Amino acid sequence: MNSDGEHPDDNIIRVPGTERIFYRGRMLVVLLSILAMTMMAISAINVALPSIESSLGASNSDVQWMLSGYALAFGMVLVAAGRTGDLLGRSSVFLAGVAVFTLASLVCAMVDDPMWMNAMRIVQGVGAGLSTPQVNGMIVQYFHGQRRAWAFSLFGLVVSASVAIAPLLTGLLINSLGPNIGWRASFLWNVPIGVLTIILGFRWLPFGPERVRRLARQRGEFVSARLDLDPVGMILLSLAVLSVMMPFMLHVAAGFLLLVAVPLLGWAWVWWERNYARAGHQPMVNLNLFAIRSFTHATVISGVQFLGATSTFVVVALHLQSGLGAAALLVGMIGLPNAAASAISSLWSGRHVIGSGRAIVIGGFCCSLVGLISVMVMAWFMDGDSPTLHYMWLSVPLILFGIGVGAVNTCNQALSQEEIPANIGGTAGAVKQVGERIGTAVGNAMITAVLFWVQPIGWTAGFTAAIGVIVVLQALGLIFAIADRRILGDGRSLRNLG
What we know:
Structural class: mainly alpha
Distance between the termini: 14 Å
Order of helices and strands: EEHHHHHHHHHHHHHHHHH
Largest sheet: 2 strands, antiparallel
Helix content: over 70%
């Protein structure tokens, strides 16, 4: 048995500082539950917004904050939360995040005022930001070799499936329970899942590291046990992330003045982190992290992919609902085969990432490109007079897109962590997620702007232009993936995990 709790039985973990035995399978059930809820909270509200707006009497500004407040808080908290979990113990920070997210979801389901809804969406984002870096950190800490690849395949499956399924479930709730009760139920489903996650978390997650660090600090035995959260670094990076995301999330022209502050804040953060480390302290992010090429390459590839891929179903929904008059439930059904394909692809990719991960990323981008180009072509054969079932044919090329997204997400997630030390796994995962959140914010703003700019010519033309931008971005991701494989090869994939 090694220091990370390895045991001859692949599923068993024995953690220093506790006599209890923990099981990797049970741990994943707990970790992936909150991941599913936080991802569903991103896409479910898109379908619920018209009902929420009508029920609460929300203004356009309120609606913007309902969409953006969650993502802004999520992105700002991520790295600070990852750092805190690395230092204080990931299980404790994880459960604190789940509790915050669950309580905020309950209040969201009960509010009758848009101001409270906006406030609780921000609190939801804080809870999501606290908990999700710990998922990555604990997988890196307690899973090794093929077991880590398997865990990250389930990670990719949950991300892809949750984002795709949430709009369908929300549409079903609104259709069956009515607009006022249905949107509330889309928040309320988080409560029993969150409570169960907390109960099982106390039973199935290892708290040994927290106990060991606490005892070490009390005895003054280890410098590594010293609490050094680098609050200045946290504030500077959070402000930089806010300045990047807020203009794109809120679509306010004056907000783009914040982008002027980004280079200054970025420079100040890098300067502070370097000098903080030179002074003998523990910086929030050790900048040597970016010297690990497998991590840096995967983070860039992931950011470019999210810049385009996450906007695909936004423009599909806008085109079908606003342009062609299709029902929200139909749009959700079109996305269901995509979710299933992405899930299967994620599981398959996880089994083959060791030794072939970078080749699979390249193949995934190629598959996504074929699917997206086919969607562009099919759009020209549909109009508002087409039978409703004709729209379902879009699900066929979107299956190819789902296969590609599942493959890229799973392999890239595993490859990004192949050389990351376990003690900074939460921070590294959070840095990567910040790139993904920024990519999503910028991509959604840019691609929907293209759609509406070209839309006066016709909805099909606007839709084709928007998908065309996504194709260009995915092609850029493919170029980066090819370069990554040429530089690093596949022979070293996950070489340190075996």
